[in-house]
Amino acid sequence: MNDNVSRRDFLKRALGTASVLSAPTIINYLGRSSTSSDKEFLEIRDGNFYLGGEEYMIKGANYLTRDHPWRMFHKYDPEQIDKELEIAAEVGINTIRVSLMHPYSIGKTKDNWKPYHNLDIREEYFVRFNDFLGLAENHDIKILVNVMSYAPHAWFEPKNHHYAKKYLEKWLPDFADDERIIAWDAKNEPEIHQAYFDRQGEGNKYDIPGFAKETADTIKELDQNHPVTIGLNDTHAEEGEVEEHLIGAISDYINHEDFYSFHFYVPIKH
Known about the structure:
The chain has helices at about 5-15, 80-90, 100-105, 125-140, 160-170, 190-200, 210-220, 240-250; strands at about 25-30, 45, 50, 55, 60, 95-100, 140-150, 180-190, 230-235, 260-265. The chain is of the alpha/beta class. It has a seven-stranded mixed beta sheet with strand order 1-10-9-8-7-6-5. Helix 1 runs parallel beside helix 8 (about 240-250) and helix 2 (about 80-90) runs parallel beside helix 4.
């Protein structure tokens, strides 16, 4: 990011009059309230997060377990995860973002890629994810779930968007009323995928903005309690084009998510 532009000024420019929250990289754009009065779900009011009627500061990070960072539920190690969550809680983290890895949830192995239309999620994946939510709850940590991590490229073709909907229909109903989840992430860094396909000359074949919008809409159809976010990234823009890169991407996703998560990777200066 341009050193002459502060993060706060950049985000204000990107989202116009949207409020910049004190929680790192989380921006409020749309208000949404939970429908269940007897449970505590994240609400967004007047540019702030609320949980259980109290203002809630999200203090979080991405979470990848140490030994199997991309296969956390495929090679599940609850003892190690519990230790890592304990450390996270000790340093003040109250929210972590994890990913449901589509290939492994349907049984991918090193030498066996399942067909992109395979939606037979392994039962043990559900069991492990539910157990993980319990471990996090023991440390008072909420979970932001990225539901579309490593989705097959074929799903990004408009004719195949319905596969993502069917995948979500298998996941969300069981967790729509779960207070341990704080929000759903509709798509990880979608603008990077679109830029990649554009560079390959396949931009007309794949529709990432449409895919992300349909995913967000599907989540809201299946779950009336949890808000929806989407993560945008600045690291794949050419030097000096970061602002234009992100500002241009925002317009593709506006009015479908409830708040936006910006993924900033700022080099450490010595």
